[in-house]
Amino acid sequence: MKRVLTLFMMLTAVIVLAACGTSKEKTAEKDETAADQEKIIIGIDDKFAPMGFRDDKNDIVGFDIDLARAAAEHMGVEAEFQPIDWKTKEAELLSGRIDLIWNGYTITDERKEKVLFTKPYLENSQVVITKADSKITKLSDLAGQEVGIQSLSSAADALNGNPIHKEVKKITEFADNVLALSDLKTGRVDAVVIDAVVAEYYMTQEPDTFKLLEESLAPEQYGIGVKPGNEALLEKLQAALDKMNEDGTAADISTKWFGEDKVLK
Q1: Would you state the pLDDT for residue 22?
Q2: Is residue 19 part of a domain?
């Protein structure tokens, strides 16, 4: 009986060790695949100028687009851009349909619980944009007004984090900033809370249409979101970004789109 029991225990140990070995092999294989993939699919909001948007020829262009292409070249991979519904960006990433969220993606504590982030690469803030002839000149003037924001964006966090949100008459959510600004121009909303980099771009495009309030709602930083468990890709991407800071590639791209080097080192 003891001999049978001993044999049974030995057999069980062999099975457990074999299973562990197989599990480790699969994990190693997964990490190696992530590190050596030939193409990365990047989820973007293609109406988020100047970070990522469509030009007159319907080509996807922008600061983040150029930065991503340059990073992909440094990594030795192909960059494929996939326009997504910004409201479902984390779901797209976690499902594996995209490899990165890279398009003016603000780093927040809430998002850190779901997504891995690179180091911040650009400073930003949430600001208020109104029509040029609006009587709104300061944040307190938003009391009793209708304000537009992009749905599930950091603009919502910034507005809700300011006491003025309790005095706003109505908050209207839009799928993207283009729709929000369109309703602003037609008077369906009185102001829009929006990323400073986006607001400044539209100010240069339509200087007589919009104006910016001097007060901002919240400072923030942009980062690139990577799926948890894909540390190999994160490490490779960060190394490429660091190299681009060193060799001046990032500065050149920033100067092209912003007229100066705004990239965080």
Answers
A1: 45
A2: no
